[in-house]
Request: fold
Amino acid sequence: VVAVYGTLSDLLSVASNKLGIKATSVYNGKGGLIDDIALIRDDDVLFVCEGEPFIDPQTDGRPHEELTGSHTDWLTLNVGGRYFTTTRSTLVNKEPDSMLAHMFKDKDAWGNKQDHRGAFLIDRSPEYFEPILNYLRHGQLIVNDGINLLGVLEEARFFGIDSLIEHLEIAIKNSQPAEDHSPISRKEFVRFLLATPTKSELRCQGLNFSGADLSRLDLRYINFKMANLSRCNLAHANLCCANLERADLSGSVLDSANLQGVKMLCSNAEGASLKGCNFEDPSGLKANLEGANLKGVDMEGSQMTGINLRVATLKNAKLKNCNLRGATLAGTDLENCDLSGCDLQEANLRGSNVKGAIFEEMLTPLHMSQSVRGR
Reply:
C-alpha cells in the first residue's frame, strides 16, 4: 500500500524501492497502461513491471474481483472510435439514475458490446462525450475551445445527466451575444423593403426605428405593431392601412403623411406633429385611433372625416382647421384642445371632456349632448 502523490515518475520510484525492481511501467487491473497519475483512484490495485508485457491477473487462478473491488473496476470505452479509460464508480456514483449508470452498474446487465480490444462500444460523438466524462469525474463543467455547447447539452440529455443539463443551459445562455437593440437606419430599412416581394406581408412588429428618417417612403400595409418609432421623420410617408397599434410615435414628425385606414389603437403619439395629414379614405375605410395617446399633438389642417378617436387623449392638442365631420369623439379627452375652425358636423362628442377647449370659428354649428363634460 503506497501513497500516490507527485508525478508518475515519483510513483515508479516508490514502487522500485518497495519491490526491489527497476519499475518502468504502471498498469491497471485491465492491463491498461497508465500514463497520467490523475487516472489513479483510492484503493486501486496497480501492476508495475520492468518493461515486460502485462500478464492478466486472472490467469493465476484468482478471480478479478479479488484484485479490484467492483466499485473501482477500470473500464475502457470506445466512443465513436475514440478510447476513454475510466472506472465503473465514475460512471455510476455521481448520477445513479443516468443511462451510463444503468449500463455499467451491473456487469453485462445491458449486454454491452465490446470491440476486439475489450472496450465497450458507444455510438456517440467523442468530442461531446469527453466533457460529460470529466464532469462525472470531478463535478465541474469544463469544455475546450471549439466545442459546441449545444452538442454537449444534447449528449447530456441522451445519457440522462440531469445535474449537468442545468449547468449547460446556463452556460449556453451566458455565451449568447447580447441582443442588438440599436435602431434600424433608413438605409437598412430601404434595403429590407427592396428585398421583399410586393405581395408579401412585411412584419416589423416590435422593431426599433427610433430617430430614423423614413420620410417619403411607401410603407403601405406594413405591420408596425408595438414598434419603436419615437422621434422618427415620417413626413410625406405613405402609411395607408399600416398597423401602428401600440406603437411608440412620441415626438415623431408625420406632416402631410397619408394615413388612410391606418390602425393606431392605443398608440403613443404624444408631442408628435401630424399637420396636414390625410386620414380620409375615399373607399370609406376609417382610420382607427381609439385609445391613442395624442397629448399635445399638432394635427392642424388634417383631413379626418369619420376618424375613430373614441376614448383617445387629445389634451392640449392643436386640431385647428381640421375636418372632423362624422368623427367619433365619444369619451375623448379634449381638455384645452384647440378646435377652432374645425368641421365637426355629425361628430359624436358624447361623454367627451371639452373643458377649456376652443371652438371659435367652427365651420358648422356644434351640437353637443348634455353628457359632454366641460363647457
Remarks:
- The chain has a mean pLDDT of 86.
- The two ends are 103 Å apart (CA to CA).
- The beta strands are 25-27, 47-49, 74-79, 82-87, 120-122.
- DSSP finds eight helices and five strands in the chain.
